[in-house]
Design a protein that fits this description.
Distance between the termini of chain A: 60 Å
Largest sheet of chain A: none
Order of helices and strands of chain B: HHHHEEHHHEEHHHH
Shape of chain B: globular
CATH class of chain A: Mainly Alpha
Oligomer: heterodimer
Structural class of chain A: mainly alpha
Amino acid sequence: MPNKFLLALLTLAMMISLPVAAKETAADNYKTYCVQCHGMVGNGNGVNVRDMSVQPRDHTDAKSMSGRSDDNLFKVIKEGGPSIDKSILMPPWGDTLSDDEIKDMVQHLRMLCKCKFGS
Amino acid sequence: MKFRTIVLFCAAAFSSVAFAADGNAILNKDCVSCHNLKGPAPQTLKELWARKGPDLFFAGNKYREEWLESWLQKPQRIRPAGEFYGDHLKRGDKHDEVDAATLKDHATLSREDAAAVAAVLMQLKPKSDLIAKEKLEPGTISEFMGEMVFDKFLGCSACHRYEADEGGLSGPELYTVAKRLQPEYIASYIRSPQAWDPKIWMPNKHVSDANIQKLVYFFKALNEEHHDAK
């Protein structure tokens, strides 16, 4: 019995010590990855936009953002603009953000636009 | 004659030992506060934001020694928006702008110190396995075709300058990149920025082998055009 307890304890300790990438908050991910193009306040006017052929989406524009479903937003963040027939300038973030982080990001965008799909 | 040879030999041996020791001493005294010399790369965003200059723990896999030596004597800004770029932004009339007042210039080293530091940095090669995977063929591309790949097909210009006043600002400028970096490093980094720097704000665009090769040629062509870029 004590051996079983010890084994369980060891297993638990190993699980805790496994290197698991910590989930970042959507606000922190937005600040790091999205602000460069979508801007400090999310209005599509980031520091990179001057020479862009296509203006990044204004995430505060409720009218435009409510035209995109959550699934559509998830897809474009993960797979990039061409995956929804939009610009190559929107890159895929699937190797940077986990699916959980992208789901959180979609909710963060809903907070920025103060809108829901179809509203 | 023999005595003179021995003296010269001893002097050379002594100077090479002192050379390496100085480079290490300078790095650990003056560089370590802004540069990570031991790794690993930032594993969290908080660590990423705290970084003030590029990680140097794999400098020997990354840089060209002659460029390092020369740049350290006359440093010029490579990242227009500094590092972390988000800490150097301000709101502008039309769009966000780089807040130049928050950017700091890099220290300038003497010729001797620059050579010593570069020599020590070039010994740091913990990621040679990634470099060995890159098989680049010699070749060229016209600047026009290279720009098509870089700008139109892949959208790299969104974040990187490919001329002194053309392109984005959140990434390092690339018109002198061929002079700065080893071609295999450039190829490997494009293939997977996260393999080098897990939290970096450059995405993995899954660029094909053929396009990676074309980008390396393009950077070489740009460097030849901008060989005197200031």
